[in-house]
From TrEMBL:
Keywords: Amino-acid transport, Signal, Transport. Residues 1-24 form the signal peptide. It comes from Acidisoma silvae. Belongs to the leucine-binding protein family. It comes from the Bacteria. This is ABC transporter substrate-binding protein. Residues 29-356 form the Leucine-binding protein domain. InterPro entries: BCAA_transport, Leu-bd, Leu_Ile_Val-bd, Peripla_BP_I. GO terms for biological process: amino acid transport.
Length: 370
């Protein structure tokens, strides 16, 4: 397995145009990409690298930026905060990049932003979603909407569905509780009543003790967040306890359904949208032809990040101060692979396109917006 991962990384490095040292050519504009080439969720990370490279290739094919081409320099974060910091330090100090694109969870992206801020560097976030990422205005810009935005839209959605009472069930971490706070505020603002908020400890073999309160309270609906095996275990506990309330969740695609028949029509939710644009469809076809499979969403978020970076550099210049000045202008009226992008004063995406889903016939199916 290790050998195959290293081989995959070698392909990425070659496709990104590295030399053996990873140094950019003197007549090129170096841009850093930090991705977990080893560790967790490698394929999504490779897709992110490919998306960034696709945007750089398009810029370079059109003559570059005032004659200078973009040189993508990729470093491995291993999906570890310490390795992410090491990668960023190398890119900033050795390769002299002004900006980096980062793929990784908030545990990787936040420390990079923390060290980039006093150094006066720019971070473009393509995958992390913690609301705390908004604490670095002028340093960190996101093409992916953060959990506070998605949480608020989830609360609005549930209220518009006619739900009056709800129980929240989320993992007890920054992702779960942060999203819950925003969703609960939006839900109650519409007159909804939160009967209970349950934040469970991850990795338990059984969650019936946590869900017994739901059984007693009999809410109209359950509002949730989660991912992977824990969600499967939570669903099993709900089924065994006879809890038949519908589930409204954020990012349903990362939930693991335990019993498809029981879940039929019971799981609904919203996820980041905008990937049905003509540009996204064209990029998907190109990537499928080049890499043998349709890319994951991070491909498109990275494509937009690199394109916006290129526009900012073209408008203002290559220093971090130039890019900081140029990015808010570059995003105005921008129509990208993930749809239109609007930023607030912090450089965080607002009013993002959202897709809605319901679980039917054994899979998530598109559903109409409320």
């Amino acid at each position: 397995m290790r050998k195959s991962l290293l081989a995959a990384c070698a392909v990425v490095l070659l496709s990104a145009g590295w030399g053996e040292t990873g140094q950019a050519a003197e007549d090129a504009i170096p841009v850093g990409v930090i991705a977990n080439l080893t560790g967790t969720d490698v394929q999504s990370s490779l897709d992110m690298v490919h998306g960034a490279q696709a945007a750089a290739d398009k810029i370079n094919a059109s003559g570059g930026i005032k004659g200078d081409k973009i040189k993508v320099i990729v470093e491995d974060s291993e999906y570890r905060p310490a390795a992410g910091i090491e990668a960023a330090t190398k890119l900033f100090d050795v390769n002299k990049v002004s900006a980096v694109l980062v793929f990784g969870g908030s545990s990787v992206t936040l420390p990079i932003a923390e060290m980039a801020q006093p150094a006066g560097k720019i971070v473009l976030n393509t995958s992390a979603s913690s609301a705390k990422l908004g604490d670095y205005p002028g340093t960190l810009y996101s093409t992916l909407p953060l959990d506070d935005i998605v949480g608020a839209q989830l609360g609005d959605y549930v209220a518009k569905e006619g739900v009056h009472t709800a129980v929240f069930i989320v993992p007890n971490n920054t992702f779960g509780t942060g999203l819950m706070d925003k969703a609960a505020a939006a839900f109650t603002a519409h007159g909804g009543k939160v009967l209970k908020e349950i934040a469970y400890s991850e990795g338990q073999p059984d969650y019936r003790a946590d869900l017994q309160a739901v059984q007693r309270l009999k809410p109209d609906a359950i509002i949730g967040a989660g991912y992977g095996d824990d969600t499967r275990t939570v669903f099993r506990a709900a089924r065994e306890l006879g809890i038949n309330a519908p589930w409204y969740v954020a990012y349903p695609s990362i939930f693991a359904v335990e019993d498809p028949k029981w879940m039929e029509g019971r799981l609904m939710g919203l996820d980041n949208g905008g990937l049905d644009s003509p540009l996204a469809k064209t990029l998907s076809l190109q990537a499928t032809k080049q890499y043998g499979a349709a890319p994951r969403p991070n491909y498109y978020y990275a494509y937009d990040a690199m394109t916006l970076l290129g526009l900012a550099i073209e408008k203002e210049g290559t220093t971090a101060a130039d890019i900081k000045k140029g990015l808010p202008e570059a995003v105005k009226g921008y129509q990208g692979a993930t749809g239109s992008i609007d930023w607030d004063a912090r450089g965080q995406r607002i009013n993002p396109p959202m897709d809605y889903f319901v679980f039917r016939n054994g899979a998530l199916q598109p559903a109409p917006a409320p």
